[in-house]
Amino acid sequence: MIYVNRGKMYFRMVKNLVILKIYFIAIGILLISCASGSKSQGARPLLKELTENTYSKQDWFVPLLPAIMGISADQAIWRDTSDNHSIAQLVTHLIFWNNRILSAFKGNEVPDFDGDNNRTFIQLSDKDWNELVGEVQLLESEWKQVINNASRQKIIKWQSEIANMCAHNAYHTGQIIYIRKQNEWWR
User: Fold this and answer.
1) Domain containing residue 88
2) What is the full per-residue pLDDT of the chain (187 aa) written as tens digits?
3) Residue at 187 is within a domain
4) For residue 117, is it within any domain?
5) Number of domains into which the chain is organized
6) What is the DSSP letter of 120?
7) Is the pTM of this model over 0.70?
């Protein structure tokens, strides 16, 4: 019985990820059309909405902050017996990439990266979990501010990168919710 329920949950998760992928392809097409020389505000409002939707504002899917709020440090560092990542590892991975893109967007020097993505999934001790959640909240605030204050040319140049970052956030948020549902830690 448990195997069947997990199979159904897995099927539902895959179906939702396919729908999410289609959603982001449609957004990508919309972003490209916004980048044309029209007199509209361009991609800025859409990027602001995407950023809010993947961090905190629930619209079509559960965003990152609600997905990680209300779980204990023990739950955050829990791992199954496979090579799957813990919730905390997924969050450290997102923070790594979101911070890296943010630094580049701001024109700051971005440290070299050796390409070993496994190093971005850091397992934390239980005392670090609350700090990690706070870092996600600060990231959202900073992304909103830089998108709002960036020039139109910068928005056009970075729109694809920011949209991809949001899709990446949504993908891993789905994994976080799956872990929570799998362990009956979801509402």
Assistant:
1) 2-182
2) 444 455 556 556 666 665 666 566 556 655 555 555 444 467 999 999 999 999 988 888 899 999 999 999 999 999 988 889 999 999 999 999 999 999 999 999 998 888 888 888 887 765 689 899 999 999 999 999 999 999 999 999 999 999 999 999 999 999 999 999 999 999 8
3) no
4) yes
5) 1
6) G
7) yes
Structure tokens at 81: 């017996």
Distance CA 86, CA 180 (A): 10
Residue 136, domain member (yes or no): yes
Structure tokens at 44: 């800025």
**CB-based contacts of 49: which residues, under 8 Å, 6+ apart?**
57
Q: Which two tokens stand for residue 57?
A: 């504002």
Burial of 181 (0-12, 13-18, 19+ CB in 10 A): middle
C-alpha to C-alpha distance for 103 and 175, rounded to whole angstroms: 26
The CATH number assigned to the domain holding 107 equals 1.20.120.450
